[in-house]
């Protein structure tokens, strides 16, 4: 399906496809799509003038004392299959005030404005991405048996994956691969390289589609970072490419590892701010059940072209394909905010001519923890509370988020931490009762 660019094209397509409802989607701070259904008869007015709504619908936005407007982006319009072969339209929106001024609590607008600034300063980034998820029994109870490999469940999962790929194609989302290494393991989906904003839009839309298709197959798709103690964690990766005049600025054929000083500065900038970044890229209490010693997720602050468990990895391709891949984020993260803070930190490292620690040029899986520590610039936070403390003292990341997003993020995450720390868990009952 070709990408739509104008309101008239969308109105015509809605009419031809006999679509009754178009879902207006917008992201909350936590990275979940909220939606308002708009009847097809009111669509032209909603697109041209915007759709006013009570900001309490957003759920996790800082109260503004004023109503807001949903402003749909026509380029994000797509048609999805609903239940009973019904077709449904959907579009991604930004939040504005009623007078059209940008709402500083809108995560999509915040990223969009930042991308515009870095473009004006001479940087042009493109991003590849991937994330993983589990397909679980719809009555998941947290027990290993819910990762069932019965013939019936396997068949449902295969049909679900097939329909997910079809739905993503119809939504104009280019998928490079969808793979599952073993029957009870996570499913990893990789997307084609694209612009920063489109990458974030695609991740959000893909999660919505995956959840919707899975539900119709009587399965539950989860993006919870660590849904079971012995289950593999769920990761999100971002691969950054810096272009200028068709040349990859991260590539340098005559320097060590064939990467440029700008690449090293980008890596060093992320390292400098990574503990605060984790409050965004690893935003839940459960996120830190994945970031543990001896786990598959990055734990030490290191970079490598060889060690696959490093925080930052350099894939082997060079030239136009030279890429810096950041691997600490998990599948619960908000892609708009995650890309925002990673780019902010990376660009600051370029601007300040920072230099990272030496790269690790070998696999470290057989090394002791003390040896791994000596090769790193420290560790990632081990709890959400640690990450929030780092964010509270990092003015660069705070400024990138903006006051409204930063305040709301801190408030909601602090409430989550306090709820968690005051709750008695099964592990404690089994150990102490």
Automatic annotation (TrEMBL):
Top enzyme category:
ligase
The residues covered by the GS catalytic domain are: 107-433
Q: Keyword Ligase, does the record have it?
A: yes
Q: Can you name one GO molecular function term for this protein?
A: glutamine synthetase activity
Q: Which SMART domains match?
A: Gln-synt_C
Q: What range(s) does the GS beta-grasp domain occupy?
A: 17-100
The Enzyme Commission number assigned here is: 6.3.1.2
Annotated Pfam families: Gln-synt_C, Gln-synt_N
- Superkingdom is Archaea
Q: Which UniProt keywords apply?
A: Ligase
| InterPro entries, sorted | Gln_synt_N (IPR008147), Gln_synt_N_sf (IPR036651), Gln_synth/guanido_kin_cat_dom (IPR014746), Gln_synth_cat_dom (IPR008146)
- State the family it belongs to: Belongs to the glutamine synthetase family.
User: What's the protein name?
Assistant: Glutamine synthetase
């Amino acid at each position: 399906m070709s990408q739509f660019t104008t309101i008239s094209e969308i109105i015509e397509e809605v009419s031809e496809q006999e679509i009754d409802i178009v879902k207006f989607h917008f992201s909350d701070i936590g990275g979940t799509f909220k939606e308002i259904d708009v009847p097809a008869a009111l669509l032209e007015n909603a697109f041209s003038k915007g759709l006013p709504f009570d900001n309490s619908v957003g759920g996790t936005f800082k109260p503004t004392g004023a109503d807001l407007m949903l402003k749909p982006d026509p380029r994000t319009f797509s048609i999805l299959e609903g239940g009973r072969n019904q077709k449904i339209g959907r579009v991604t929106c930004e939040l504005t005030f009623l007078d059209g001024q940008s709402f500083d609590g809108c995560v999509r607008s915040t990223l969009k404005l930042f991308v515009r600034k870095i473009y004006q300063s001479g940087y042009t980034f493109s991003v590849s991405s991937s994330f993983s998820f589990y397909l679980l029994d719809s009555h998941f109870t947290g027990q290993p048996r819910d990762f069932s490999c019965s013939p019936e469940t396997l068949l449902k999962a295969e049909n679900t994956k097939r329909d997910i790929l079809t739905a993503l194609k119809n939504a104009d989302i280019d998928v490079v691969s969808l793979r599952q290494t073993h029957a009870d393991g996570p499913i990893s989906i990789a997307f084609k390289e694209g612009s920063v904003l489109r990458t974030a839009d695609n991740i959000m839309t893909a999660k919505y589609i995956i959840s919707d298709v899975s539900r119709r197959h009587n399965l539950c798709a989860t993006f919870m970072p660590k849904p079971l103690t012995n289950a593999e964690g769920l990761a999100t990766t971002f691969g950054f490419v810096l272009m200028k005049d068709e040349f990859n600025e991260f590539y340098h054929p005559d320097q060590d590892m064939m990467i440029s000083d700008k690449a090293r500065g980008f890596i060093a900038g992320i390292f400098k701010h990574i503990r605060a970044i984790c409050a965004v890229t690893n935003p839940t209490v459960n996120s830190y059940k994945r970031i543990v010693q001896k786990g598959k997720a990055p734990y030490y602050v290191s970079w490598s072209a060889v060690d696959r468990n490093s925080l930052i990895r350099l894939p082997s391709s060079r030239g136009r394909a030279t890429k810096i891949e950041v691997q600490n984020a998990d599948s619960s993260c908000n892609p708009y905010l995650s890309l925002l803070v990673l780019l902010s930190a990376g660009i600051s490292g370029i601007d300040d001519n920072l230099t990272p620690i030496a790269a690790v040029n070998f696999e470290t899986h057989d090394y002791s923890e003390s040896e791994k520590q000596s090769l790193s610039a420290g560790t990632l936070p081990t709890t959400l509370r640690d990450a929030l403390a780092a964010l509270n003292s990092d003015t660069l990341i705070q400024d990138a988020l903006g006051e409204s997003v930063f305040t709301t993020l801190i408030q909601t995450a602090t409430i989550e931490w306090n709820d968690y720390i005051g709750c008695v868990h099964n592990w404690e009952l089994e150990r102490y009762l």
